[in-house]
Amino acid sequence: MPPPTPTGTRCGAALRRRFGRPVRSAAGGGSASISRVALLLALLGAAAPAPARPPTATARELPVEVAAALQRARIPPQALAAVVEEAGGGRQRLAVHDDIPVNPASLAKLVTTYAALDRLGPAWRWRTPVWLAGSVRDGVLAGDLVLRASGDPTLVVERLWLLLRRVRQAGVREIAGDIVLDRSAFAPAPSDPSAFDGEPLRPYNVAPDALMLNFKSVLYTFTPDPATGRARVGAVPPLAGAEVDVSVPLAEGGCGDWRGALQARFGDDGRVRFAGRYPAACGERVWPVADPAPATYNARLLAGLWREMGGTLRGHVRDGAAPAAEPSFVAESPPLAEVVRDINKYSNNTMARQLFLTLAAEAAPATPATADAARAVVDGWLRQRLGDAAAGFTVDNGAGLSRDARLSAAALARLLQQAWSSPVMPELAASLPAAGLDGTLRRAPVPAGRAHLKTGSLRDVAAVAGYVLGASGRRWVLVAIVNHPDAASARPALDALMRWTMDDEAPR
């Protein structure tokens, strides 16, 4: 049968964009970027950082346009913590409330991704060894198919199909034993997917797992067919035992809350029903949904995909230990630099949490990785990089999907200054969304490509941090974080601060 859509196209790209990012009321963040080549050429001449100069008196005053935007949003200026200083340790233009620990939302991903690039290297890859544990004769594997997971967050359905295709190319049509999954690399604490914001079916709430297949989620596609008066429903990937309504009646009127209009029922028994209607005015839409039974998702996906590929499984999919022998082959992820780009461009929480635990797994390969161990690794790395300033960081889960994460604007600015002179600066900077062009800041109302910034959003946090190119040709480190119950209304003030940073004075 023909292969599914190639990696990086519709399904994989949709997973990266949609499955890691919460709605504004929950968590997320982002920015935008010029082309990678142009970015690297522009940034490779960075100077080594020097200690930032003490702020002048005016640096403690908000720019008029920023203060006015906060006033229009009815947000007090005390809710904004901000730093603007020349990259490389030059003069400081702005520093307000910069030493107060605040919730950074998804700006926490800057810490996780920089730590990973620095400790593991941009070319590092996750490796998933596979064993054909038995002889193969006449298309039958007389034994088990074994996978040992390492935390790879890129095993979306396209890449899993390629892995299983290699098994088929080895001559295996039928597995007489079981498919065995060794997930011992991680030991995540039990978690409630609804605990953070009461949204258990949001893909960003999926808990970490050493074997994270397709983000344990399903993409439902709705395509109107006016001739029949119904919308066709598609579901990717195929899950064993799933029963999904193949169509839903069309409705007239505007698009509006089309998800609510569907009256969806996602059962943990694999049954998916749509009791409502789908507005024809919506055109084709895609709805990513975290599977309501994550504990059995991997088994159902592997069984369903193997069967769809024409394979037969006599046994079951179960957890177990990998053999000590050399694997039959190893499936590798894309290089870390590419994964970090997906994490930061689209603020993918699930991928960030996988990477966070991977730092612990790589630091102590013989011990299952835990969140506590990952925090210890990152805390130690921050102390090495920042000294006493590291005390201002509380990284929590490494993704920013947290009410407990904390850092100060001054400490994050210092980390970005340190990153500016590091060997991995080009990869980190290129991973940030380019304002007005891509990622979570593709619609930012600022000159396109002049800022490479990570954004953060929680119901009470709005933030940006990264690098900005001024009209003078200078590069600026910008950190701005609003903590306020109505933080979403502060976005125009953050946009104003970006424009103010870009509109610096001409060189003298």
Report on the structure:
The chain is an alpha/beta fold. It has two domains: 25-123 and 336-502, 3-Layer(aba) Sandwich (Beta-lactamase), CATH 3.40.710.10; 126-333, D-tyrosyl-trna(Tyr) Deacylase, Chain: A, CATH 3.50.80.20. 29% of the residues lie in helices and 22% in strands. It is built from 13 helices and 21 strands. The strands form four sheets. Strands 4, 5, 6, 7, 16, 17 and 18 form a seven-stranded mixed sheet that branches. Strands 1-19-20-21-2-3 form a six-stranded antiparallel sheet, sandwiched between helices. The chain is globular, with a radius of gyration of 24 Å.
Helices and strands in order:
Blueprint: H1 10-18, E1 27-28, H2 36-43, H3 64-72, E2 80-86, E3 92-96, H4 108-120, E4 127-137, E5 140-148, H5 157-169, E6 174-175, E7 179-182, E8 217-225, E9 230-236, E10 243-244, E11 247-251, H6 258-262, E12 264-266, E13 271-274, E14 278-279, E15 285-290, H7 294-308, E16 312-313, E17 317-319, E18 329-332, H8 336-346, H9 349-363, H10 371-386, H11 409-420, H12 425-431, E19 451-458, E20 461-469, E21 475-483, H13 491-502
Parallel strand pairs: 5-6, 5-7, 6-16, 7-17, 10-13, 11-14
Antiparallel strand pairs: 1-19, 2-3, 2-21, 4-5, 4-18, 8-9, 8-15, 9-11, 12-13, 19-20, 20-21
Helix pairs in contact: 2-12, 3-13, 4-8, 4-9, 8-12, 9-10
